[in-house]
Amino acid sequence: MLFGAINEFWYAVPLVISISLVYSATRFERMDMILSHALRVGGWIVGCMFVVFAVLFVISSRL
Amino acid sequence: MPLKDPATAAFLAWLIPGLGHLYQGRRAKGLLFMVCILGTFLYGMFLGEGRVVYAAWQGEDKRWPYLCQVGVGLPALPALVQASRVRNKKPPLFNTFILTPPKFDANPRFKDDEDEDIDQLNKRLHRYFELGTLYTMIAGLLNVLAIYDAWLGPAYLLQQRKKEEEERESERPPPEPASAASPAAIK
């Protein structure tokens, strides 16, 4: 069940990249600042997704 | 930062993602927005086989996602043309069902209407219908950020202006206190 769910998460990767880059590009003008900020934002998004996934997985495995 | 005419830049940014920034001479950002936003939109269209972007307001098929998808501008506008043609009992442009609303029920909308209805479409595409819808909606919403950036410039400039105003306020000398007694009262 877990590996089936992981397969679906690959569809989130292009979205995370796109959202991070576009959001960072609206905050800065220089490309190096945009890219470094995008890496940070992308990391935050993936981290939050992982935490939420872990919580939901634990809850659903105990039901 | 010279933003040229902000209204024109914002309109161009809506029409084609990144075009407003290219108009302003901000080439790197313009290309970045173009590639990211159009890439996301086109990938969504690919996942949904071109059937996830359409304008419809019929029965239970009220296509709310189109309100987000239209943020991408020109790539999503032909859906309005297709919807209008189908509503007037004409076949869609170029005889293709891309950007065309699916049938709501089994009744044909025009002569030799061989399109699927919304249930058949969901059954055939499975999760890719929702995924394609999600991608195209997000592309439209991201373009709203790009339009804002073309109109007003990057967000850090607003913070910088605020900081400069606060520094000017703090450098201004404080007003002198008014004297308690007037010269006439002292006499």
Mean pLDDT figure of chain B: 86
Tell me about the largest β-sheet of chain A: none
Please state the oligomeric state of the protein chains shown.
heterodimer
Q: State the end-to-end distance of chain B.
A: 61 Å
From N to C, what is the helix and strand string of chain A?
HHH
- Cross-sheet strand order for the largest sheet of chain B: 1-2
Q: What is the count of DSSP helices of chain A, taking H or I runs of 4+ residues? A: 3
What is Rg of chain B? 27 Å
Following the backbone from N to C, one meets helices and strands of chain B in this order, namely HHHEEHHHHHH
Rough outline of chain B: elongated
Unreliable stretches of chain A (pLDDT < 50, length at least 5) are none
Low-confidence stretches of chain B: none
Classify the helix fraction of chain A into a percent range: over 70%
How much helix is in the residues of chain B? 55-70%
Strand content of chain B: under 5%
Query: Most extensive chain contact?
Result: A-B, 17 and 25 residues
User: What is Rg of chain A?
Assistant: 15 Å
Figure out the total of helices of chain B: 9
Computed structural class of chain A: mainly alpha
What do you see in this structure?
The complex is a heterodimer of chains A (63) and B (187). Chain A has helices at 2-9, 12-25, 31-62. Chain A is an all-alpha fold. Chain A starts with a helix and ends with a helix. Chain B has 187 residues and is mainly α. Helix content of chain B is 57%, strand content 2%. Chain B has a two-stranded antiparallel sheet. In chain B, helix 1 packs antiparallel against helix 7. Chain A binds chain B through residues 8, 11, 14-15, 17-19, 21-23, 25-29, 31, 34, and chain B through 1, 26, 28-29, 32-33, 36-37, 39-40, 43, 127, 131, 134-135, 138-139, 142, 145-146, 148-149, 154-156.
